[in-house]
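The protein record filed here.
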Amino acid sequence: MTDLDAPKFEKISELWFEDGTITIRVEHAEFRVYGGILAARSSVFKDMLSFPQPQPPTKIDILKGSTPSISLQDSVGDVHVFLSSIFDSSFFEPRLATVDLSVVLAISRMADKYDVPYLLQRALAHLADFYPRSLEDWDNRKRVGRLESLSDLDDDMSVLQTALRINATEILPIAFYASARHDLDRIINHRRWSHIREDYRFRFLVGYVNQSLACRAMHTFLHLSAVDGCTSPPACQRGLQFYTKHSHIWPKQDPLEAWSGWGCLYLDVCTACFTACKEKHKAGRQKFWDGIPVIFGFPGAGEGEELH
């Protein structure tokens, strides 16, 4: 092959060090970095750089008169953020820093694949801010979350796919729940749905049905009778029956958001009944939250599970 026939690669300037010791090529791009640093961070790259003929899909070609060249089968975007996080200490800082979700997920995948534990733990800590283990933190996620994008279907499906891929058991139950908040037709037609393993798709669909049924249970706080301190039992019962009858207007797929009519209810029942409703509703939300792992086929709180 002549020089004219050789494939052309775009040098990524911010990750092209003239005194670098290794070139990494992926798709149309190439990076020149320091092999020693990469090997010190990643056991996979350490092994890769120790042998002249590693197994596919990664290959090392020692080019005469140039640095060793590694060809990777990952995406340019994933490799870019992965190398940036290793060679630029300010690129992917620990919690409290604002970071884009796509960056967190890319680093999660690459750190898991190439065995960079500190980066993986840092990425999981960022994800735990947005897909937390406690209901209080979930309710506060928009206030304390430092991921730049709020959760939507694409975010939730991206997190679910990555969490399954890297076996992130800490966030998996909430990732299942978060994805199941959306319309089923949109979910199964989403581009990431087909990339989820069949047994997990089945687990998701069973959980989806159970989560939908749980929305109905969220309205049982309206079924009150003989509340101590009620100042107007007939009027309060009429008010509660009215909201029970019209409870179908609230979201049908997200039990935690299945009711938001407190302002109206406050005007139609006495203070004692209103307080009792809020306490019962709060307990119901907590019960659902605690049951999310079981709904999606995971062990309950305090139990462990290896997915692979």
Notes: Residues 53-59, 61-65, 304-308 have pLDDT under 50 and may be disordered. Residues 216-292 form one domain. Strands lie at 10-16, 22-26, 29-33, 59-61, 69-71. The chain has three domains: 10-87, 101-196, 216-292.
